């Protein structure tokens, strides 16, 4: 039970990191890449 909860948190964390990495601000063009 705890392992599934931890895995879920990790997946959400990684998804948030990837999303913020690809589009930090929606609608704003990336200038630093």
Main beta sheet strand tally, sense and closure: none
CA radius of gyration is 14 Å
- SSE order in H/E notation? H
Strand residues, percent: under 5%
How far do the termini sit from each other?
A: 41 Å
Organism: Virgibacillus natechei
Protein name: Lipoprotein
Description of the structure:
By secondary structure, the protein is mostly helical. It has one helix and no strands. The longest helix is centred in the middle third of the chain and has 21 residues, at 2-22. The mean pLDDT is 76.
For the structure shown, list the relevant keywords.
33 residues; mainly alpha; 1 helix
Q: What is the topological layout?
A:
Elements: H1 2-22
Organism: Virgibacillus natechei
Protein name: Lipoprotein
Describe the structure concisely.
This is Lipoprotein. Helices cover 64% and strands 0% of the residues. The longest helix has 21 residues.
């Amino acid at each position: 039970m705890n392992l599934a909860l931890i895995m879920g948190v990790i997946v959400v964390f990684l998804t948030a990191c990837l999303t913020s990495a690809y589009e930090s601000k929606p609608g704003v063009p990336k200038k630093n890449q």
